[in-house]
Amino acid sequence: MSYVTLSALPAGILFALVTTITPGPNNTMLLASGVNFGFRRTLPHLSGISLGVVLLMLSVGIGLGEAFVHFPVLYTVLEVASVAYLLYLAWKIGTSGELKVKSGERRPMRFHEAIAFQWVNPKAWMMVLTAATTIHLSESYSMNAVAMAVIFYVIGFPCICLWAGFGTAMRQVLADPKRLRIFNVAMALLLVFSLYPIALRLIGMSA
Hints:
The chain is mainly alpha-helical. The protein has one domain (9-206). It is 76% helix and 0% strand. The protein is built from nine helices and no strands. It has helices at residues 9-21, 25-37, 39-70, 72-94, 111-117, 122-134, 141-169, 177-193, 196-206. Helix 3 runs antiparallel to helix 4 (72-94), helix 3 (39-70) runs parallel beside helix 5 (111-117) and helix 4 (72-94) packs antiparallel against helix 8. The model is unreliable at 98-104 (pLDDT under 50).
């Protein structure tokens, strides 16, 4: 019978804490969204990230991780798509303008968009694949994925809220259009920099 053991729980909690609170594509975009749109308008983005990571973790538990083992080219395709999409997002952030814009010109990421983004988020894949293969909360692969999905949600949501909250707190400082432009460009560059592990791997494969 499959069950969840508590012996590996501290490791699971620590892994979720470290991976969700440290910089990455999600947190960089949440910081920028907090600055540009405020915390309340960023809530759908926050909720979408949490649910997206949960769904990704569960999908690995039902066999998607095994598919990457047997067909590594699929993972390479995912990495290329991730690079392309993150570069697009970096450009969108870097070219953002003032905080106060006309209705409809700019908006925060929507709930379903944040869910979908996790499927091309390299850090999210690293999180769930590492958790699935190194943290053993259950003898069952699928039960382990369920347990880690719960941990990621409970631990991760407050962590990513801190990034959006910090961005919101900076709105007064960045109300000046010039400062905001500098901030958005810096966030875009950080987003691009987060791609360097993938870039190194793809360069190594082509060498």
